Amino acid sequence: MNLEVTQEKALELSDVHVTIRGSHILQGVNFGIEPGVVTGLLGRNGVGKSTTLRSIVGLVPRVGSIKLFGKEISNLKAHEVIRSGVSFVPEDREIFSTLTVLENLKLAERDKQPNYDIVYNLFPELLKRKNQRAGTLSGGQQQMVAIARALLNNSNLLLVDEPTKGLAPRLVTEVADALEVAAKSATILLVEQNLPLVKRIAKNIIVMDQGVVVHSGSPMDLENADFAQRMLGVSGGSH
Ligand SMILES: Nc1ncnc2c1ncn2[C@@H]1O[C@H](COP(=O)(O)OP(=O)(O)O)[C@@H](O)[C@H]1O
Ligand SMILES: [Mg+2]
């Protein structure tokens, strides 16, 4: 007897293409991610990781199929994708620097009962600084605001683009802790260059090169120095 159990994917991209101003950036991206875990999206600079996240959210014109828990979302506008329970933390954070921390959080409220407890428990620093203008925060604190905005709402899927870029080691740990807490209630697709962090929190990895997915597997694959060098141009094994 053939008892094949196929678990529904949290997110499934099939043959996704993105062309921007004549440049064919995503050239048929295919991958699926498991619900309830962190999946790392890796690859050298410029291979299309950020564009992949933007295509999921609907910020760039895309062709192909994108399914969120089985529901086709590639035809939805960005605000409709967000309303279906997707939260996006973009690479450049995009916080409002002239507004206070609390005002930034208020603007991100999507649910009827936004969960401020989870945010302030995770980032007590933000509670202390809730009336401070976001532009005067450190880079790490601004990243906390960006992640906090996503955690306020109950998300099915959290897309996070290079959250530790440019952060001091202590803040990298705080961001990793925050993502681990977030992973308890949401599925996370995480673009991240920090391989030790990926090994710590990701269950699966997807590697892109030149607009397509070239590998799907386990973070353990990064232990292989040849693999890391070939796929990412870094020495991944030891650190
Ligand atoms: N808005 C855009 N207009 C033109 N080219 C873009 C745009 N966004 C990204 N690209 C190009 O698409 C490629 C992939 O970019 P990106 O998705 O940001 O890569 P990654 O996040 O992996 O570093 C790069 O060559 C980049 O220059
Ligand atoms: Mg990027």
Give the uncertain stretches in residue-range form. none
Strand order of the largest sheet: 6-7-8-3-9-10
Bound molecules: adenosine-5'-diphosphate, magnesium ion
Instruction: Please bin the fraction of helical residues.
Output: 25-40%
Report strand %: 25-35%
The biggest sheet, with number of strands, parallel, antiparallel or mixed sense and barrel status, is: 6 strands, mixed
**Number of alpha- plus pi-helical segments:** 9
- SS elements, strand count: 10
The number of domains is: 1
Q: In angstroms, what separates the terminal alpha carbons? A: 47 Å
Secondary-structure topology with pairs:
Layout: E1 11-20, E2 23-33, E3 38-42, H1 49-57, E4 62-68, E5 71-72, H2 78-83, E6 86-89, H3 101-107, H4 116-122, H5 124-128, H6 139-151, E7 157-161, H7 169-183, E8 187-191, H8 195-201, E9 204-209, E10 212-217, H9 225-232
Parallel strand pairs: 3-8, 3-9, 6-7, 7-8
Antiparallel strand pairs: 1-2, 1-4, 4-5, 9-10
Helix pairs in contact: 6-7
